[in-house]
Design brief:
Strand content: under 5%
Distance between the termini: 9 Å
Low-confidence stretches: 1-15
Structural class: mainly alpha
Shape: globular
Helix content: over 70%
Radius of gyration: 21 Å
Number of domains: 1
CATH superfamily: MFS general substrate transporter like domains
Number of helices: 20
């Protein structure tokens, strides 16, 4: 593949500048990483911080807080299930027809339109809010399949870890910056000409849509479209993607065994990571911590995570991606132990700092490790499967959290139970032979 050969040639011959050390030395690499900047605003403002509160307090007006929260939880589960079903199929189509960028643009456009539509959500509009949230969440999840499947095509083998972590770092910058702006709007609406916090919240949704759309343009313009997979002459056959998926599933078991082991390890330890992300605020609330502290901790994770995401890319150059992820998982075990003994709001903020140190790096290097272990003509399919496990991340962990809280009547033991996912996931990851996985992937490329 010409684009991959060119990328390797440039990477080898170019001096190691500062931008090269952090994985952003070429225009297409910067353009690719900017999509993390673009969509992270949606993840932070819509999925994590502002919209969930607006959903339960404004759109859910007339319902009890528990009923509104239950509706939101249902929407979240639906928004995880749909991409899990569609991602492998859409990834196979993208491989065969060489249209990753068009499919990414379509999913991004649909998601941005749904987020912009949130401006029209008024008090009691729970149905409209639910539909728009599910559509936008599904769209952003699906867009990641096409986005991540481009990584092995633009980054050389010796720079893929740094490029992946650079994407996460820019995601922290973009998501954190717009979230900070949105929170200022909502806390001081009259400073910016908004009638009240509700109008400021709706304006923040529109700002996310614009942000997502505008900062996606560099990827759509500068990142080259990877070539179609061999056999794309069958692209008009409706059965072709399903035939390809069936073949790839068989090959995962028979040929790409190290890649399959990597997926299983990631599924387990990422479940722990996502549980920490989703349950941290709830856990803090059970300890009586203020909402302002929860918001501050979220911003801490966003901004402190920036240098540490870059640092993980550099660390992977020294000790390897696998060893770096194992180190991050060891820190996560320490985080769960610290969470068990946590008593004050200062402890909670310290916990946020610890999470910020390892969250982006472990997920980014997991992505780059996986990218090296898949054949380039099937990156859409493989990242479609990767997305399935990523989307379901947190479901087992939150279930374990809830069970332990019910059995022990203490959320402290619930948070401690999450350590099991990091220990088991790390044990499986330790068995993965990354070099063998890379060798098999390269050997099976046309």
């Amino acid at each position: 593949m010409a684009s991959d050969t060119a990328a390797r040639s440039i990477a080898v011959n170019k001096p190691r500048t500062l931008l090269a050390r952090i994985g952003l030395d070429r225009p297409e690499l910067r353009a690719w990483a900017m999509y993390d900047w673009a969509n992270s605003a949606m993840v932070t403002t819509i999925m994590s911080a502002v919209f969930p509160i607006y959903y339960t307090t404004v759109a859910g007006q007339g319902l009890t807080e528990a009923a509104a929260s239950g509706r939101l939880a249902l929407c979240n589960n639906i928004a995880k299930f749909i991409p899990a079903v569609l991602s492998p199929i859409l990834g196979a189509i993208a491989d065969q027809r060489a249209n990753r960028k068009r499919m990414l643009g379509a999913s991004m456009g649909l998601g941005a339109a749904a987020v912009a539509g949130m401006w029209f959500i008024q008090a009691g509009d729970i149905a409209l809010a639910s539909w728009l949230f599910v559509i936008s969440s599904v769209a952003v999840s699906i867009s990641f399949v096409f986005y991540e499947s481009m990584l092995p095509h633009i980054a050389a083998d010796d720079e893929i870890d740094r490029v992946s972590t650079a994407g996460y770092a820019l995601g922290y910058v973009g998501g954190g910056l717009l979230l900070a702006i949105n929170l200022v709007w909502i806390s001081r609406p009259h400073w910016f000409g908004f009638a009240d916090a509700g109008v400021a919240s709706r304006a923040s949704f529109v700002s996310v849509a614009i942000w997502w759309l505008v900062f996606s343009i560099p990827l759509l313009r500068r990142v080259p479209e990877p070539p179609a997979a061999p056999g794309h002459e069958r692209e008009n056959s409706l059965a072709a993607p399903f035939i390809a998926l069936g073949r790839t599933l068989r090959e995962l078991v028979t040929t790409y065994r190290q890649t399959l082991l990597m997926i299983l390890a990631f599924f387990i330890y990422n479940d722990g990571i996502m549980t920490i992300i989703t349950m941290a605020a709830s856990y803090g609330a059970t300890l009586g911590f203020r909402t302002e502290v929860m918001i501050a901790s979220l911003l801490l994770v966003q901004f402190i995570g920036i240098p540490f995401a870059f640092a993980f890319g550099i660390l992977a150059d020294w000790i390897g991606a696998k060893a770096s992820v194992l180190a991050g998982l060891a820190v996560y075990v320490g985080i769960t132990v610290f969470g068990f003994f946590m008593k004050t709001e200062a402890h909670f903020l310290t916990l946020a700092v610890l999470v910020a140190m390892v969250q982006g790096g472990t997920q980014a290097l997991s992505r780059s490790m996986f990218a090296r272990m898949v054949p380039k003509h099937k990156t859409g399919e493989f990242f479609g499967f990767f997305s399935v496990f990523n989307r379901f991340g947190g479901m087992m962990g939150t279930g374990m959290f809830a069970l332990m809280a019910l059995v022990t009547n203490q959320t402290r033991w619930a948070i401690m139970s999450v350590a099991l996912f990091f220990v088991v996931g790390a044990a499986l990851l330790a068995l993965v032979n990354v070099s063998e996985g890379e060798r098999v992937a390269r050997a099976n490329e046309p």
